[in-house]
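tl;dr need the bound structure. longer version: we got a ligand (NAP) that a collaborator sent over and nobodys looked at where it sits. i said id run it. heres the input, straight from their email, havent touched it
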Amino acid sequence: MSVESVSGTAQIIDGKATAKALRAEVREHVLRLSERGLQPGLRVVLVGEDPASQVYVRNKDRAAVEAGFDVDTIRLPATTSQEEVLACVRALNEDPKVHGILVQLPLPGDLDGDRTVEALASHKDVDGLHPANVAALWRGEEGLVPCTPAGCIELLDRYGIEISGKRAVVLGRSMLVGKPLAALLLARNATVTVCHSRTEDLPAVTREADILVAAVGRAGLVQADWVRPGACVIDVGINRNEAGKLVGDVDFEGVRQVAGAITPVPGGVGPMTIAMLLRNTALAAERTLSA
Ligand code: NAP
């Protein structure tokens, strides 16, 4: 993996190139599965017309087709009832051609995302959000791991950034990113601190970090003086700044002068999420061969 390194500034962790390499590996995996008579099937359930969700789903769809998956998006109107959403999920659970199901969250209106995720067959829950997969992650058992946190770990590994024994600080404690990432870092023997909106003196905590992950959703929250010199900074945040530009939670230009390595936004963690979704789906398909 090539690392862009400018004298006096951080290595840029290139999520776009890493995700491309990962997608090529998944494509190879899919070819090997097809030699065994199996084509991984992915179904994305999209309820309503939220423009951001439409873009995400279109990108997932394209990447899945390129990787050789049997992929389809089930589009339901925003007026769909909870029972109808659950019926759709149950039908996909029963379909042997489907190995991975992804319900695009958040669901519109009063639809209950938690109830919907709980209705998924856990072995098809390629987003890793079903309670059985959450428990498996914390218990160190085989399951499916949420894609964005898994993508962060993959970036650290592919750039040879040591995790074991290091101090990791995670900003954010959501079920989607912060908590599963903390579990993954802990499983890899990091000493983990999880911060949130009530954490006192955040900069004092973040300055302790060898690995600092920001998953908050606030443009430019992490400033250069929050970062220990040489630390690795992973920016999960996706925000629009005042000028309408896509930015992360980290003041990239300032922090890159201090950090040892840093992910940009865009082109950092974002592309890894879809690549990990594909990897999870291929894995879920392969597991049916030994089930
Ligand atoms: P979320 O559910 O809104 O959680 C945000 C977390 O940040 C919460 O735990 C919150 O604390 C904490 N927080 C809020 N303000 C804070 C502050 N000033 N200081 C410290 N912590 C603060 O968001 P999410 O779903 O985890 O997503 C986080 C960011 O990652 C968003 O920008 C999202 O768009 C992005 N994201 C990117 C990808 C990707 O593929 N790159 C995937 C998923 C999400 P409390 O718990 O106390 O409220």
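gonna send this back to them w/ a short note. Confidence is low (pLDDT under 50) at residues 1-7.
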